[in-house]
Design goal:
The chain is mainly α. 74% of the residues lie in helices and 0% in strands. It is globular, with a radius of gyration of 18 Å. It starts with 9 loop residues before the first helix and ends in an 8-residue tail after the last helix.
Length: 203
């Protein structure tokens, strides 16, 4: 009987779907189809909540999933930030916080992997920051797409609150990553071959 590759599960599939959804979001947004872009963003946000719930409910945690989940979040947030920066250049300094934070997080994760250490999975504050990110941008695009309202004050307030929470999450992740980097605990060791695990035959 063949063993099922444990990396092939619903949570990982949802994380991959979230990455794929970036393409239609960017296309819709850049063609000023704001409502469609907002719907895609809502779907993306729902998959972000579902993958964690399913992973916990059915114990479908994998090392690949712990990397895919935050990666899909970072790519989605980066895409939205760039789109808004193109649409409203005045927001570039504020949105740069998001991009810088995500670049540093990816760099830290790559450093850990290079040293055969397992990056930390998503924490509650990271998830809350991500959900707030989706809510903020959904409100912004909905105001413009549905009611034709472009209120810079509301936009800046929403993004500022989100940026503050993301900075807090980043500081907490830095503490965790630093602890993992200097730890000899075997629980933080990563098995690269396991990530590439193929279906094997059970005798």
């Amino acid at each position: 009987m063949k063993n099922r590759n444990k990396n092939i599960n619903i949570p990982n599939a949802l994380s991959i779907l979230r990455i794929i959804l970036i393409i239609p979001f960017v296309i819709y947004f850049m063609h000023n189809q704001i409502i469609s872009a907002g719907i895609v963003l809502v779907i993306s946000g729902l998959t972000d909540m579902l993958d964690g719930m399913i992973a916990r409910r059915f114990n479908q945690f994998t090392e690949l999933g712990q990397m895919l989940d935050p990666l899909s979040d970072k790519l989605t947030q980066g895409a939205v930030a760039v789109c808004l920066a193109v649409e409203q250049p005045v927001l570039i300094p504020l949105l740069a916080i998001f991009v810088l934070k995500e670049i540093l997080m990816v760099a830290a994760a790559c450093m850990l992997i290079k040293k055969n250490k397992k990056p930390s999975g998503s924490k509650w504050y990271g998830k809350v920051a991500t959900i707030l990110f989706y809510v903020s941008f959904t409100v912004i695009v909905a105001l413009k797409g549905i009611w034709g309202i472009e209120n810079l004050t509301v936009t800046v307030i929403l993004l500022s609150i989100t940026a503050a929470l993301m900075i807090y999450a980043f500081v907490q992740y830095v503490k965790i990553y630093t602890a993992i980097l200097h730890s000899d605990d075997p629980q933080y060791a990563i098995n690269i071959n396991e990530l590439m695990d193929k279906k094997s035959v059970r005798k």
